[in-house]
Design goal:
globular, 63% helix, 119 residues, 4 helices, single chain, mainly alpha
Length: 119
């Protein structure tokens, strides 16, 4: 189940990147699950779980959140995973929502909504 959740997160990420990234995305952005580093797989599964639990404990009322609120939640959960797995991350890896590029904010919002539909 854990791997399935991580894979679903990664698939939602790749779909979002392909939809929102301006131009040709970096290969690392669309690396298939099988080639994704272990720490990133663990992080994807963890964030999926956090979003699913958030949807569950709110009794589905996350549907009332704005897309931005949904995306911010995914971004914050991901930043915590970056700090868990990388001792000295690049500033861009842990940038606050307002500093993220538009394509990434839209992708994070899409991820939340994909998990929300599945939960």
């Amino acid at each position: 189940m854990h791997e399935e959740q991580g894979r679903s997160f990664r698939e939602a990420w790749i779909a979002g990147v392909k939809k929102h990234y301006p131009g040709e995305p970096k290969p690392g952005y669309i690396t298939p699950w099988e080639e994704t580093p272990d720490w990133e797989r663990q992080s994807a599964a963890a964030v999926y779980g956090q979003v699913a639990q958030f949807v569950d404990v709110s009794a589905g009322n996350t549907a009332k959140l704005t897309r931005e609120q949904k995306g911010r939640f995914v971004a914050m959960c991901w930043i915590a995973q970056i700090h868990k797995h990388i001792d000295d991350p690049k500033p861009g890896y842990v940038a606050d929502w307002d500093l993220l590029p538009e394509w990434q904010r839209e992708t994070d919002s899409d991820i939340f909504e994909a998990i929300e539909r599945h939960t």
